[in-house]
Amino acid sequence: MDIKDKVIVITGAGRGLGRAIALALGAQGAQLALIDVNRAELEVTEAEVRSRDGRCALFVCNVASEVEVEAAFAAIKAHFGVLHGLINCAGILRDGMLIKVKEGELVEKMTLAQWQSVIDVNLTGTFLCGREGAALMAQGGQGGVMINISSIARAGNIGQSNYAASKAGVASLVVTWARELARHGIRVMGIAPGVFATDMTAAMKPEAMARMQQAIPVGALGEAQQLAETVSFIFANDYLSGRMIELDGGLRL
Fold this sequence. Notes:
There is one protein chain. It is built from eight helices and nine strands. The protein has helices at 16-27, 39-51, 66-80, 112-140, 161-181, 199-202, 206-215, 224-236, and strands spanning 7-11, 31-36, 55-60, 85-88, 99-102, 105-109, 144-149, 186-193, 244-247. The protein has a seven-stranded parallel beta sheet with strand order 3-2-1-4-7-8-9, with helices on both faces. It has a two-stranded antiparallel ribbon with strand order 5-6. The model has no long low-confidence stretch (mean pLDDT 94).
């Protein structure tokens, strides 16, 4: 798909990887519908997109809310009239061990709130936005592309029962939706990033950062621009569907 003038929704566009994707696709001429729960952060992304002569519209939405997601996609349809692509990037972390036992006593356990909040945003949010996005693309009759952002943690990672489960679910939806939606000309792909340079990793102690980099075969953390380039590659290659791209520098959990 040539994305010039195509309408593409990006969730989690207020910061981080979502913002980087927005900047890359905006620079290539796409018309962007930017979704995030935080308006102030969305406006920062908007300013950066427009500073590069990109085009975008903002839609404040909690992707975990069915009512808000349906309203947002209805507004997107009213504003643009059609949809060609969707990138499900919204996600949160609420890390914690399943249990902590000290000297035979249970001192802590992952709460249901920790579990549910991550499942609600990462997995249910992907489902709701995927459903509404697929409906608009199918009704538009022009096909489209959907990309789910999963994680290397989908294979399981200590201290991330909730996050790993949500990202494994997101990855399974790639295969399911690719098979279901092919009849409508919709391709579905997934990307599983490894350890990327973010605000969180920037705050790490130098010795911890050095250990992390040494564990990655290519010797460096991923950069947001590399993820954005992978998104562009998926849009450009019409023979890609139903697969995950492991963007992790060779790291395996």
